[in-house]
Design goal:
With 190 residues, this protein is of the alpha+beta class. Helix content is 34%, strand content 27%. Helix 1 runs parallel beside helix 2 (85-92). The longest helix has 15 residues, at 169-183. 39% of the residues are buried.
């Protein structure tokens, strides 16, 4: 795999559930850690527009042709605004990958979704559609799923993108920018 590949890390900003919208930031990073560009959009808290917003954000960007893969911090933005990875992958014609520090508790998610959303089965299907796999790193293992590459290539991409800490650098940078936009300074772990 090319060492200086450009990855778009995507994370949402902190939000309150009474908020209507949450910011979404994309950090375009040339591996291992050179920030080349930043994209911003917003999604509806607990809505269903995340996939459309990501597709539009990348498609309208002047960096579109440079993005070789997208890495999301988890499968949902702004609460349970669940990403349709298959549609994003097919529309943008680039690999997509989700990473998370901890293995999700799918039973708890199903219960939460069924209590709060009439379309909970559709959301849950998107969350569980792709196999979630463990990726060993120098730090704690991550959990990931994705489309568009063979699994060993995804593992290599994750490992190449971790500079310090436990998450891919594009996701870490997107998290820092998104939290600073809302809180005035960056905080928390991505």
């Amino acid at each position: 795999m090319k060492q200086q590949i450009r990855l778009l890390g995507v994370d949402d900003s902190p939000f309150r559930f009474q908020d209507r919208k949450a910011a979404v930031v994309g950090a375009l990073v040339r591996l291992p850690n050179y920030l080349e560009g930043v994209m911003k959009s917003e999604v509806t808290v607990d809505g269903s527009d995340a996939s459309d917003v990501i597709i539009e954000m990348v498609s309208r960007s002047r960096y579109k042709d440079q993005v070789k893969a997208v890495i999301f911090d988890g499968i949902a933005l702004a609460g349970f605004n669940v990403l349709d990875l298959e549609r994003i992958h097919e529309t943008l014609a680039i690999p997509v990958l989700t990473v998370t520090r901890d293995r999700p508790d799918f039973d708890r998610m199903r219960v939460a979704l069924s209590k709060h959303f009439s379309d909970w089965e559709d959301r849950y299907s998107l969350i569980t559609r792709l196999e979630l796999r463990q990726v060993g790193t120098e730090h704690k293992s991550l959990w990931a799923s994705g489309l568009g590459l063979e699994w060993p290539e995804f593992e290599e991409l994750v490992r190449l993108s971790i500079v310090r800490g436990a998450v891919p650098e594009p996701v870490r940078i997107a998290h820092l920018i998104a939290s600073a936009m809302v809180k005035g300074e960056s905080y928390g772990r991505s």
